[in-house]
Request: fold
Amino acid sequence: MTPHHTNKGTRGYRSYASMDVIKKRLKAEIRGPQRLPGGVVEDAVVGEIRRLLRTPKVRAVSLVRNGDNGGGGVRRTCTLTC
Reply:
């Protein structure tokens, strides 16, 4: 999928088009959606990033790299495989 933008009058529309559409493949060869609204794709990506940031491993690595050790004053090192 690749981002695409078009205007109709004064309105702008964001969408994502599949490479099948861009390369003008025959309809018989195309599987799945050909175009998706930009908001749908972007909301899905943001939701997945938020889900990943909530995982314990990513949260621990982020805290260590940013120097936040819970206010204890002692810097801890990352023991996870990053």
